[in-house]
Specification:
Blueprint (H helix, E strand, L loop, with lengths): L2 E5 L5 H11 L4 E5 L3 H7 L11 H8 L4 E4 L2 H7 L2 E4 L19 H13 L4 E5 L7 H12 L6 E5 L9 H6 L4 E5 L3 H14 L8 E5 H32 L3 H9 L20 H14 L3 H28 L8 E5 L14 H11 L3 E5 L5 H7 L9 E3 L3 H5 L4 E4 L11 H6 L6 E4 L6 H7 L2 E4 L7
Parallel strand pairs: 1-2, 1-4, 2-3, 4-5, 5-6, 7-8, 9-10, 9-12, 10-11, 12-13, 13-14
Helix pairs in contact: 1-3, 5-6, 9-11, 9-12, 11-12, 12-13
The structure holds nicotinamide-adenine-dinucleotide.
Length: about 450
């Protein structure tokens, strides 16, 4: 029986390994992590992350061919194939601080693999890493492992999106596998491909060289984020020219060369990956003397920051140039719907911006915990200007304005007549996700601002 070890039980490692276990009943999958709290949550009724469909998959496989453990060494020792899905955040200090990927976790995982391996293994990069990381990993492994043990490193970047992770894993657009040239590399690629063959159609599995696979993941996120910044840049222009962003997006999307996806203007992109991966790309370009290319990608992040501050400025300027002492309901805190993840969520910057103008915030998100919001806003629970409540009606009661910061479906179907009646007047809505019907709200009496449209009243 083939044994797989997944190092890192986070947003990628947990769902990815669970789907492999689901689709390959003949393979034993052990997911390991150094975080005891994460592993005990994976072994409990309340999983550490929220993803639609994840609980069902885990319940179906846990205790059969899927286990979660903190015994990293044992499962490395036993595995034939090791998937590494550890975090690769932006470096916070030293060389490349603020841009380069911090590979500390990767290096420590690689050293553990080297120490514990007594038989040949395939190491699969699932984490997003700088191009040519495999070369560094090879060095660490070959210099530290027992004599005679051989490793093949493969790059198999993960393209899942949070909120649709299970669907993306079960039905991927494509699976990318990059390996070393030569017979041993080729054999390793075929072994990994053999796992995906259980459920992914042949034509969706793409094999490349190692460096193309590594760089493809960075390019993928950079292109997606660039598209968001492009439409958001257009939204700013719409607001000052009388053009409507939804009409513009529609017109663009009908051009088959452009296509319809990722054309929704918003308060900005968030999530743990886009910014970090673009910064990583910028660092790689700069390190290789490609300054103009680096500047090009930097601008994607600058436009995103600008979009968030433009939103805050619009809230404050619309509300007679001050939100001091005014109650603002913040609906949604996660960086997107159907996830509890708040990493780099635009809500953090928007809330901080409004607090900077002395607003009183009442925050509601259906999936994000109170503790998480407190942590993200770096406050202790006694701070007076922020309350975190458990439903949207409570959040909006007596509020002067509402900011929609996550596109949760439930915000589309609130009883806005009731909401309006319980708010201070004039009642403002700032729709940072363009999910609400402006005409309907305006008829009720709201003053509505949505991204990329002139102010309606
Ligand atoms: P995460 O922080 O949720 O999970 C990483 C886990 O690795 C943590 O639980 C941590 O405790 C564990 N870990 C760190 N070092 C370890 C070690 N030496 N041994 C065992 N466990 C260790 O991160 P994530 O969101 O799952 O992302 C992981 C990687 O995947 C990153 O490189 C990210 O860029 C990439 N990625 C993320 C997404 C996404 O949507 N989150 C999508 C595609 C790719």
């Amino acid at each position: 029986m083939v044994k797989i070890c997944g190092i890192g039980a986070g947003y990628v490692g947990g769902p990815t390994m669970a789907v492999i276990a689901l689709k390959c009943p003949s393979i034993e999958v052990a997911v390991v992590d150094i975080s005891h709290s994460r592993i005990s949550a994976w072994n409990s009724e309340k999983l550490p992350i929220y993803e639609p469909g994840l609980e069902e998959v885990v319940k179906q496989c846990r205790g059969k061919n899927l286990l979660f453990s903190t015994d990293v060494e044992k499962h490395i020792f036993e595995a034939d194939i090791i998937f590494v899905s550890v975090n690769t955040p932006t470096k916070s200090s030293g060389l490349g601080a603020g841009k380069a990927a911090d590979l500390t976790y990767w290096e420590s995982a690689a050293r553990m693999v080297a120490d514990m391996s007594k038989s040949d293994k395939i190491i699969v990069e699932k984490s997003t890493v700088p191009v040519r990381t495999a070369e560094a990993i090879e060095k660490i492994l070959t210099h530290n492992s027992s004599k005679g043990v051989k490793f093949q490193i493969l790059s198999n970047p993960e393209f899942l999106s949070e909120g649709t992770a299970i669907q993306d894993l079960i039905n991927p657009d494509r699976v990318l596998i990059g390996g070393r040239e030569g017979p041993e590399g080729h054999e390793a690629v075929l072994k990994l491909k053999g796992i995906y063959d259980h459920w992914v159609p042949e034509d969706k599995i793409i094999t490349t060289n190692l460096w193309s696979a590594e760089l493809s993941k960075l390019a993928d996120n950079a292109f997606l984020a660039q598209r968001i910044s492009s439409i958001n840049a257009m939204s700013a222009l719409c607001e000052v020219t009388g053009a409507e962003i939804s009409q513009l997006s529609d017109a663009l999307s009908k051009n088959t060369k452009i296509g319809p996806k990722f054309l929704n203007a918003s308060v900005g992109f968030g999530g743990s990956c886009f910014q970090k991966d673009i910064l990583n790309l910028v660092y790689i370009c700069e390190s290789n003397g490609l300054i103009e290319v680096a500047n090009y990608w930097k601008q994607v992040i600058k436009v995103n920051d600008y979009q968030k501050s433009r939103f805050v400025n619009r809230v404050v300027s619309s509300m007679f140039n001050t939100v001091s002492g005014k109650k603002i309901a913040v609906l949604g805190f996660a960086f997107k719907k159907d996830t509890s993840d708040t990493r780099k969520t635009p809500a953090i910057d928007v809330c901080k911006g409004l607090l900077g103008d002395n607003a009183c915030l009442s925050i509601y998100d259906p999936r994000v915990s109170k503790d998480q919001i407190h942590k993200d806003l770096s406050m202790d629970s006694e701070v007076k200007h922020v309350s975190i409540v458990s439903d949207a009606y409570e959040a909006t009661k007596d509020a002067h304005g509402i900011c929609i910061l996550t596109e949760w479906d439930e915000f589309k179907t609130l009883d806005y007549q009731r909401v309006f009646e319980n708010m201070q007047k004039p009642a403002f809505v700032f729709d940072g996700r363009n999910i609400l019907n402006v005409d309907k709200l305006t008829k009720i009496g709201f003053i509505v601002y949505s991204i990329g449209r002139p102010l309606h009243q």
